Amino acid sequence: MVKKVLKFGGTSVGTTERIQHVANIIKKEVSEGNKIIVVVSAMAGKTNELIKLSNEISEDFSRRELDVLLSSGEQVTCALLSGALNKINLKAKSLLNWQIPILTEGDHSNARIINMHIEKINENLENNYVVVMPGFQGISKNGDITTIGRGGSDATAVAVAKILNADKCEIYTDVDGVFSTDPNKIPVAKKIDKISYDEMLELSSLGAKVMQSSAVQTAMIYNIPLEVRSTFTDRKGTKIFSQENIDYTKSVTGVAYSKDDAKITVIGVEDRPGVAANMFEPLSKAQINVDMVIQNISSDQKTTDITFTVKRDDVSKTKNILKDNDKINYKEI
């Protein structure tokens, strides 16, 4: 008997027909004697639809209420998939984040999973139920619903695999695995059969959308074997594991790019020791991920320009933090 975590992304569950197809994939796994925990995303486009609705109410919509709103997408998928499994005579039960519960800490829309109560999950597995769980969300120590960022269902799946000591974690998506670059942009892109955690972490942090970087990092720390595969074909996917198991015969594994980054330049910053730390520490505390940093050489030895990149969604928040920071002096942003 193998305990598996299967994660299905938004395109995999994008329609009721696709949800029924996913149910048949799970049925095959159960027929092989495996214990199955399923983590699901919202149906394709649903999260964007909910964000649009919140913006119609207010452009400054409450982060707390936005988490409540967005978490409903995965709950819909949980119920539909559980119903589809029941229809084909499989015992299945959905467990929502607050029913388990999945415990998180951190800001709304950017929380992280710190623990999970496994009693209900194990009880249902022992009674031969397929457990269907929502990805992307949890509950704080204050009882508030939280979300863990776009792509967070991957992080949920890996956390479940770690806490439940699953034998394998499989990420189902709309492509056959991890490719050397985006096959939609570069038709000659090749599928990678095996890739190390380090390489996958680098690709995902640089814009490859097939897996969330924090999920890869967790899998690497706890040595959880991953496989990325297609929901729609029976082809073998890409296996992700530790570097010593990779036979390197190539110098470049893949190329990634991102269209979700924004560049911020702080002009005329007082050039003195510690100014960069004073600038970036408040951003870190606000859970803003600063990526590339470039500091120009000061010609007058008094001021310099500092340029860095953040995610587009964090631009406004970053500028406000910089403007409120009385530890740095500058001319303009």
Strand and helix map with partners:
Layout: E1 3-8, H1 16-31, E2 35-40, H2 46-57, H3 63-87, E3 92-94, E4 102-105, E5 112-116, H4 119-126, E6 130-134, E7 137-139, E8 145-147, H5 152-163, E9 168-173, E10 178-179, E11 191-192, E12 194-196, H6 197-205, H7 213-221, E13 226-230, E14 238-241, E15 261-270, H8 275-285, E16 293-295, E17 303-311, H9 315-323
Parallel strand pairs: 1-2, 1-9, 2-6, 3-6, 9-13, 12-14
Antiparallel strand pairs: 4-5, 7-8, 10-11, 13-14, 15-17, 16-17
Overall description:
- With about 325 residues, the chain is of the alpha/beta class.
- It has two domains: about 5-175, 3-Layer(aba) Sandwich (Carbamate kinase), CATH 3.40.1160.10; about 260-325, 2-Layer Sandwich (Alpha-Beta Plaits).
- It is about 35% helix and about 25% strand.
- The protein has nine helices and 17 strands.
- The protein has an eight-stranded mixed sheet with strand order 3-6-2-1-9-13-14-12, sandwiched between helices.
- Strand 16 and strand 17 (about 305-310) form a beta hairpin.
- Helix 2 packs antiparallel against helix 3 (about 65-85) and helix 6 (about 195-205) runs antiparallel to helix 7 (about 215-220).
- The longest helix has 25 residues, at about 65-85.
- The radius of gyration is 22 Å and the shape is globular.
- The N and C termini lie far apart (about 60 Å).
- The model has no long low-confidence stretch (mean pLDDT about 90).
